[in-house]
């Protein structure tokens, strides 16, 4: 697994880097060699915050934890990611097997930043999948919505959490 460590508005303590590498090395058993991990450190008020994002085979796992020390936050973040993996193991195994076929159809999406508003820009590959797989990915990332390319129609769609316990699907009109 390739690990990228960075600090936002703070310097990363040199003694925590080997600990991060050791903790994330334990997650290698769940992923192939193409997995990439991004670890971001940030001080938030009197607490220390860590964000861990792992991308592998078209799936993304993300955890954000705040604690008294970076090490405690790292422990909780890795536990959260392991829990996400175990919770969705069978679906993820099926998805990881199918991803090699779908890689050919992946398309990068980029968003432009408008100067009038404070917009955080992200770009990612839009993978062909079913709405059920998109809901799984949305739940794993902890977001309220998820954009994906429908594997059957090829259209870019959005799934989202509705008030209550339901989900919604937005399909573009032709």
Describe the 3D structure:
The chain has a 4-stranded mixed sheet with strand order 1-2-3-4. Strands 7-8-9-10 form a 4-stranded mixed sheet, covered by helices on one side. By secondary structure, it is an alpha+beta fold. About 30% of the residues lie in helices and about 35% in strands. Residues about 100-115 have low confidence and may be disordered. The N and C termini lie far apart (about 40 Å).
N- and C-termini, Cα separation: 42 Å
The shape is globular
| Count of extended strands | 10
CATH class of the largest domain: Alpha Beta
SS-based class: alpha+beta
> Biggest sheet, strands in spatial order?
1-2-3-4
**What is the fourth-level CATH superfamily of the largest domain?**
Ribosome hibernation promotion factor-like
Mean pLDDT: 81
Please tell me how large the radius of gyration is: 17 Å
TL;DR of this structure?
With 174 residues, the chain is α+β, with helices and mostly antiparallel strands. The chain has four helices and ten strands.
Features:
174 residues, alpha+beta, Double Stranded RNA Binding Domain, SHC Adaptor Protein, 2 domains, 4-stranded mixed β-sheet, globular
What are the SSEs and their pairings?
Blueprint: E1 2-8, H1 17-25, E2 36-44, E3 47-56, E4 59-67, H2 70-87, H3 89-102, E5 107-109, E6 124-126, E7 128-129, H4 131-141, E8 145-150, E9 156-161, E10 167-170
Parallel strand pairs: 1-2, 7-8
Antiparallel strand pairs: 2-3, 3-4, 5-6, 8-9, 9-10
Helix pairs in contact: 1-2
């Amino acid at each position: 697994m390739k690990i990228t460590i960075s600090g936002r508005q703070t310097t990363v303590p040199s003694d925590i880097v080997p600990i991060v590498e050791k903790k994330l090395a334990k997650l290698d058993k769940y992923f192939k060699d193409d997995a990439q991990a991004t670890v971001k450190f940030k001080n938030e008020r009197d607490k220390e915050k860590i964000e861990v994002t792992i991308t592998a085979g078209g799936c993304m796992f993300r955890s954000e934890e705040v604690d008294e020390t970076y090490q405690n936050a790292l422990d909780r973040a890795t536990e959260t990611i392991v829990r996400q993996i175990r919770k969705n193991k069978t679906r993820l195994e099926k998805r990881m097997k199918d991803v090699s076929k779908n890689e050919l159809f992946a398309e990068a999406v980029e968003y432009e930043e408008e100067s009038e508003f404070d917009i955080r820009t992200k770009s990612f590959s839009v993978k062909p999948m079913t709405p059920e797989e998109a809901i799984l990915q949305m739940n794993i990332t902890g977001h309220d919505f998820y954009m994906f390319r429908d594997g059957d129609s090829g259209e870019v769609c959005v799934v989202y959490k509705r008030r209550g316990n339901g989900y919604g699907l937005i399909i573009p009109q032709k």
